[in-house]
Amino acid sequence: MATSDRGSSIIPKTVNPDIQEERNAATFNVEDFALWWHGGEENLKRKRYVESSVFADIDENKTVASIQSLSHDEIYAAAMEDALALAGKLRKLQKELNPGGKDIWPGLFSGPELWGAMPGGNPFTVHFSMLVDAIRNQGTDEQFEKFGKRAENLEICAAFAQTELGHGTFLRGLQTRADFDSKTDEFVLNTPTITAYKFWPGGLGHSANYSLVMANLYIDNKPKGVAMFMVPIRDEETHMPLPGIDIGDVGKKLGFYGVNNGYLGMKNVRIPRTNMLMRHAQVEADGTFIQSPAAALGYFSMVFGRCWISANNTTMLAIAATIATRYSAVRRQGSINPKQPEVKIMDYVTQQMKLFPEIATCIADRLAALKLRQLYHQTERDIKKGKYDGLGEIHALSCAMKVMCTSDSAAGIERLRLACGGHGYLASSNLSNLYSTATAGCTYEGENTVLLLQVGRFLMKSAQQVMAGKPLAPTASYLAKIKMDQWSGSWENIVEALECATANKTHQALKNIAARMEAGQTQGEAANNTGIELTQAAELYGRSFIAANFLQEVTGINAKTRSPALNKVLENILELYLVKAALDNMNNIFRIVKITDEDVNSLQASLEKSLKSMRPNAVAICDGFDFPDRNLLSTLGCFDGNVYERIFEEAKNCSLNKEPVPRVFHTHLKPFMKSKM
């Protein structure tokens, strides 16, 4: 029997035979999958070395469950300690493996590779994932030297303050003001109402001593649009709030326990004119305003943020899929045939339908997120050459991808939690923590419905370009085709169907907007009343991009670099993803091509065949993601499959079990039971 002493563990040092049986049945080499997934031998080798170095002395008592038992203050302190301990390790590893580089420090500090080192969250995530890049892309070279390099080295800590208590995604509605005072060559920043207070920025509460503030710029009381300002908010020595600064933590949240999201109010806070980031728009000393060559450049940093969110959420889904799949390989419940032994729950087709599509989705989404990052960097290079024609497309695509990856992960993690039954409800499963983290992505950096409407506007403009005979952006090049010739059910045919369905829904939405305006509605009213179709078209656009990219990766030139066995597995996963996407969107596909009942039955048969083919490889595929146990942080998902021992040991070590009789029994329960009232 286990005790509260973790030194006397009941967890076997052997691998559960049920999960080993799964690994023995795999039809491909797991190492081949890991090499493909992580981009080659050098990347995989470095990843494993960094993980082993960082996790070597980690306190295993620090789990998600133990963090959740702490007070809000204690969680923040633990998160800060863990983050800085990790920062120190990464700095040493950078010097050891690549002196002078930035790929390890700070490159890995805010990514998912080392989440297990910070179970309470990272107060500096936004600092490194968005803030430094924003200064680099929005500030001049001189400003990056002054602020960016200090931020990159964590000599200063900065928050990215965009969202306000009263405004989020609608940036033009931001109430924070920055008025230029030409007499002193300064900007004066104010949050004139309570709703103007900055609210939610990660790390703002008590970690940051600077903030990159998004505010509406005014010169001679005339609005010039939104600009970014580097504002000192705490003394660099004492960390006390500076004059005019009202700052603090927003309090407990559904997740992101130690991220230190904060609020910020400013009253007549003065900063030098040169603290406005001026790579694109400038304010000169005499008050002359030089407009940005492209308005969208001011929001380009958010595109990077959405790329980062998309990739991270696919990792969360992959972690959850690994946990639930491994659990399903050792959990036995009921029998399929009478008088037969209990079977693994993964043998039930209904369980496979909960698990395997999520594995396929995290793979498809991740490949698309990598493609999005490539397109972002291409746009970044184009901007430096003075080419801005790709800004509209990368904005729309990053919005669509952020929506698809966050909604896929949030919904998928919840399905996977349910697939683990009651044990999935335990904090020690880590599924609730993953869900609370993933679902936050549906809101921050652009609420998903608002982003879909922005994608919808891009699609409306694209449809108008089709009608005018003008060229289309590459990712929308198919919008001219709103009908298919015939249905075959092949992979290419399904992708074409999704694209035609996108085109059809787009043109239908445009037609309905025109009809509503003809009936007397304003353009805004017509767009609002067509909002459902606009968001549906935007979702189809995102799904079509993911599906087409997945098809290209699996069947294109990259297939020649992989083993036949691995290609066969990836083809199986691709088929499952595409067939399910076709069935999920059949209501839209019906409108663009003739499909018979037999065709739908054939798709259903393909779905079931894909599940059956994937069954022997499911655990091995998740092994190929190559998550160390410390990154999973789950009693259900460890590599050795010793689920029940881990669950029970975690329960025995619950802080409430330190004493056989809790104090509240003597102070409240016993007196009440003994009372005669």
From TrEMBL:
> What is annotated as the active site?
445
**Tagged with keyword Coiled coil:** no
What is the required cofactor set for this protein? FAD
Entry's localization field = Peroxisome
Instruction: Tell me the ranges covered by the Acyl-coenzyme A oxidase N-terminal domain, including all copies.
Output: 29-157
Acyl-CoA oxidase C-alpha1 domain location: 299-460
Which residues participate in FAD binding?
Answer: 163, 202
Stretches assigned to the Acyl-CoA oxidase C-terminal domain: 491-674
InterPro entries, alphabetized: ACOX_C_alpha1, Acyl-CoA_ox_N, Acyl-CoA_Oxase/DH_mid-dom_sf, Acyl-CoA_oxidase, Acyl-CoA_oxidase_C, AcylCo_DH-like_C, AcylCoA_DH/ox_N_sf, AcylCoA_DH/oxidase_NM_dom_sf
Keywords, A to Z, come to:
FAD, Fatty acid metabolism, Flavoprotein, Lipid metabolism, Oxidoreductase, Peroxisome
- Identify a single GO molecular function assigned to this protein: acyl-CoA oxidase activity
Q: Known Pfam families for this protein?
A: ACOX (PF01756), ACOX_C_alpha1 (PF22924), Acyl-CoA_ox_N (PF14749)
A single GO cellular-component term from the record reads: peroxisome
Q: Which pathway does this polypeptide act in? A: Lipid metabolism; peroxisomal fatty acid beta-oxidation
GO biological process terms on file = fatty acid beta-oxidation using acyl-CoA oxidase; lipid homeostasis
Can you tell me which family this protein belongs to? Belongs to the acyl-CoA oxidase family.
- This protein's name: Acyl-coenzyme A oxidase
